Amino acid sequence: MQIVPTENLPSFAALGLPRGLVDAVARAGIDSPFPIQAATIPDILASRDLLGRAATGSGKTLAFGLPLITRLAGTNAAPRRPRGLILVPTRELAMQVTDALAPLARSSNVSVRLVAGGLPIQKQIHALEAGVDILVATPGRLVDLIERRACYLRDVEVTVLDEADHMADLGFLPVVRQLLDQTPQRGQRLLFSATLDGDVATLVDSYLTDPAVHALSLAEASIDTMTHHVFRVPFEAKFDLVASIAAREGRTICFVRTKHGADRIARNLSRAGVGAGALHGGRTQAQRNKALAAFRDGSVPVLVATDVAARGIHVDDVSLVLHIDPPQDSKDYLHRSGRTARAGESGVVVLLTTPSEERAVRKMLAEAGVAPEQRDAIAGDPKVAAVTGARRPSGVPVVEPHLNRTRPASPRVEHGAPSERGRRGAGARGTRRRPTTGAAARHPQQAERRPRRAHTS
Questions:
Q1: Residue pLDDT, tens place only, 367-403
Q2: What is the DSSP secondary structure assignment for residue 78, as one 8-state letter?
Q3: Alpha helices for 197-352 (secondary structure H)
Q4: Which domains are seen in the chain, by residue range?
């Protein structure tokens, strides 16, 4: 395994990319390659199978995308027979890969199309009938299209598996194997993953032939560009602290365990004067797209997400990740935290823990290889403000009906909102909560984390 060098990197032109594509990359504002790109592009252009170990935010989309565009330029795909295939685990990642590659591919007269669950399938069928050079797909939707005889994989020259470890986590590897078996054995295969153990290693052994192996770093290595903090906070004071941190300047991603928690926190933050959107598996695709778009353009500075959505969030300039609820394990902590400090930038990661959670949190962080600064914290603490930029929320409700609201806003705030709780009289009625029933009540986190069936991806 070759460790990727990070200094004295060659230019895109020196890596063997054609001038037209190099110019398109420059017009996109990318002046020089990232380390993973400089390491992998020559091997991919040489038609070698490749195994890349790199975390999200390292530039791996262009690492496989630029040589894929180069390889496929000059010949157009036949109807329903893509020539390049990029498999990704989530709709959000599929959309972002497509958005990153499509403008660059146009400079080489290479078409890029997206197929994913939650989006109109008929439009995807029409696109395939017109011919697609590079198909970016989630596994389940691609299987649906193949079963409808709208797509065949016999002409695929290059197959890319992006975030293979996340596909394994979601239970997609049997479907991925089914799809790989339909591509030509002589075709080139590229696999990118933050970790290379377990089912991913088995996949590599089964489908890659004498691959070039490049290791930028494990996901843990991005720890070096982050500062990590644990704030111990009493349960009853937790939301006040959340609201003050979320009221900071800059983009902030907050992580919670359940989709109901994400909706509640986003709604309460908005009512407290902090623009916030929710992102989780229970939202429609249109709602998820709007929440991400508003977060990207800065109109909504805070995104509250669950672990299911953690790897679908690829937004630059996220300066702080706030773990409102501690993650399930060290791997989730690293993937959540990896939403900041992307592409060599720095970032701040804050984890909130109540006294009852502290022991488990310490064990989890030790497993993640993180040695955070720890302190007791409440809203208004100057030390918290120094670390996070926390400030008092305005208390003026932010109206974002297209992101969070399903009914007209009420002046009453749910239990836990900061400014309203102190203004309610001693005899005021608390917010009534609708009881949760069934399996979700017994195992709320499990209900959120359970993967969808593959064909709905």
A1: 888 889 999 999 999 999 999 999 999 999 987 544 5
A2: B
A3: 198-207, 238-246, 259-272, 285-297, 307-310, 330-337
A4: 2-217 (3.40.50.300), 223-424 (3.40.50.300)
